[in-house]
Design a protein that fits this description.
44% of the residues are buried. 42% of the residues lie in helices and 23% in strands. α3 packs across α4, α5 packs antiparallel against α6 and α9 crosses α10. β6, α4 and β7 form a beta-alpha-beta unit. The protein folds into two domains: 148 residues, 3-Layer(aba) Sandwich (Rossmann fold); 129 residues, Hypothetical Protein Tm841, Chain: A,domain 3 (2-Layer Sandwich). The chain contains eleven helices and 13 strands.
Length: 287
């Protein structure tokens, strides 16, 4: 039977304690403020990063260090794993996957990439599902065949409140940010397989209330079966938005137990800023 190690990174928002519980290997992404670089969740917490963002600091993010990936892969090979199944931050946002593939090739260990075309809770969910299937004796091929169709129908719809943050990060021009603020335009973003794992503009809506109404209408329409969909509501300290999303989901018939709440992972919060909310959803396995 194929011995499979599941490896993810902190883009999944998975802590090292959780990873140990699930038997998943997690690599820390790197976050840099000025001249200081930190290993995500190891040397700096999400709360500390949020505080930097509130202070209008603009950090940079990068993939896990080459040495960190190489050391882990060498260890897994020595422990007798046949296959490393990688569930990193999507290739549309990071070069982690390419580096993993390169290192595995050099070490002559079989590597299988499972691109979730997303991040945060969907990435974490897929990693856990992959590990569960591996423990049940499924091969890496069978795991991909099962999870890829569910990834294809998954989506993350993001509402960004801090336009100034997008401007500071160079993802929105100063003029566009000024016009958007004057007109009270709320950009609605999405990231999924159709966007190839890149954050793309889904729509632009006038006023916050209309933005939330539109986003939730679209999310519910895209769910094939609301009762068999796992929903994640994540945010950077904006409970009002999460409450609006929850109300819409419950009215649409999504079971309360299917909804999970979490903060946005550090490396994604760096790009979205504070006051951001996101609904992520993925079809659960049919009974």
């Amino acid at each position: 039977m194929e011995k499979i190690a599941v490896v993810t990174d902190t883009g999944s928002n998975m802590s090292f304690e959780e990873a140990k519980t699930f038997g998943i290997h997690v690599l820390p992404l790197q976050i840099t403020f000025g001249q200081d670089s930190y290993q995500d969740k190891e040397e700096i917490t999400t709360e500390e990063i949020y505080q930097h963002l509130k202070n209008l600091e603009m950090p940079k993010t990068s993939m896990p260090s080459y040495a960190r990936i190489e050391d882990l892969f060498k260890k897994l090979k020595e422990e007798g794993y046949d296959t490393i199944l990688g569930v990193p931050l999507t290739s549309g946002l990071s070069t982690t996957a390419q580096t993993m593939e390169s290192i595995a090739r050099d070490l002559k260990i079989h590597f299988v990439l499972l691109d979730c075309f997303s991040t945060c809770q969907i990435q974490k969910y897929i990693a856990i599902q992959a590990k569960t299937m591996a423990e049940q004796g499924f091969s890496s091929t069978e795991i991909l065949q099962t999870l890829k169709p569910r990834i294809q129908n998954a989506n993350s719809i993001i509402l960004v409140k801090d336009l100034d943050h997008l401007k500071r990060g160079g993802r929105l021009t100063p003029m566009a940010a000024k016009v958007a603020s004057l007109l009270k335009i709320f950009p609605i973003l999405q990231i999924n397989q159709n966007t190839q794992g890149k954050i793309d503009i889904f729509s632009k809506v006038r006023t916050e209330s209309k933005a939330y109404s539109f986003a939730m209408e679209q999310a519910i329409l895209q769910m094939k079966d609301v009762k068999k969909t796992k929903v994640f509501l994540i945010h950077t300290e904006y409970q009002k938005g999460i409450d609006l999303m929850t109300e819409s989901l419950l009215q649409a018939g999504v079971p309360k137990e299917n909804i999970t709440y979490e903060v946005i992972s550090s490396v994604i919060a760096v790009h979205t800023g504070m006051g951001c909310t996101c609904i992520q959803f993925i079809e659960e396995e049919n009974e």
